[in-house]
Amino acid sequence: MAEDGSKGAKKDGKGGVLGDLVKAESMIQLALMLPAGCLIGALAGTWLDKHFHTGWMAVAGILLGAAAGFLQIYRTASRYMKRDH
């Protein structure tokens, strides 16, 4: 059965339908962090490759973007884990 907004209230005041929407939005953010980091790193690396006439900076940009995406995912997930306890 569906819950009304008053039954799912938590300490921080976010519960029910609004709390579920906030959780869904944060999960969408988590899903987009890694691809966004890789894309931004690839674009920056490609620009640097063209500027300095090299061929390896795009790969380095993708790897650095992936590392930044994983770091942001870890920070966000650990923040939500602390909030739930």
Care to describe what's here?
With 85 residues, the protein is mainly alpha-helical. The protein has a domain at 38-79. Helices cover 76% and strands 0% of the residues. It contains two helices and no strands. It has helices at residues 16-52, 57-84. α1 packs antiparallel against α2.
Work out the oligomeric state of the chains in this entry: single chain
- End-to-end distance: 26 Å
Helix content: over 70%
Tally of alpha and pi helices: 2
Shape: elongated
Which structural class should the secondary elements be placed in?
A: mainly alpha
Pick out the low-confidence regions: none
Please count the beta strands (DSSP E, at least 2 residues each).
Answer: 0
> Roughly what is the average pLDDT, rounded to an integer?
84
CA radius of gyration is 19 Å
Secondary-structure element series? HH
Q: How much of the residues is beta strand, in percent?
A: under 5%
For the biggest sheet, the summary is: none
Write the layout of secondary structure elements.
Elements: H1 16-52, H2 57-84
Helix pairs in contact: 1-2
Concise synopsis of the structure shown:
The protein is mostly helical. It has helices spanning about 15-50, 55-85.
Which descriptors would you attach to this protein?
85 residues, mainly alpha
